[in-house]
Amino acid sequence: MLACVYPRENFEVKTVAVKLHHGKSKRKSKSVKEKLPSVTTEAECSNGERVGHELAVGGGGAVLVLSELESMAARQQREIAQQRRLLEQKEARLAVLRGAQEPAQQDRLARLRHKLDQQQSKLNRLRLLRSQTDQSRVNNATLSKFIIHFSCI
């Protein structure tokens, strides 16, 4: 894997004296324009930049070798694979917990339905008894009126 990079000399800096218009000079950092001999093999990219087995990183002239980049990529791929495995394990555990929870919930719902049916049947019996009691009161009231009426005669 090769990549287009800027030459290392673009990142080299040296201090030079700069003349100001009052005759005074000031020291400033400027990039070096001298060509340094290249240690690695280089080729040309389609855009004219030099390609080598080095990649300049940042402005400090730090260089990463291709093998270092490949080892970083391999390490990151291993970490991604490990995180994927952990995620799959957690998803499997969650599925097991949900699977164990569903039958318990089904059993609980069945018990609640049974209890609801029992309570409704009790309620219906109580309503029936109440209506019978009310009917008996009405009948007793009617009979007592008849008894009072006949006793008066």
TrEMBL record:
GO (cellular component) term, any one: nucleus
GO molecular function terms noted in the UniProt entry: p53 binding
Main location (coarse class): nucleus
GO biological process, one term: regulation of apoptotic process
Residue ranges the record marks as coiled coil: 66-129
Cellular compartment(s): Nucleus
Highest taxon of source: Eukaryota
Keyword Nucleus attached: yes
Record's keyword terms, sorted: ANK repeat, Coiled coil, Nucleus, Repeat
Protein name (database record): Uncharacterized protein
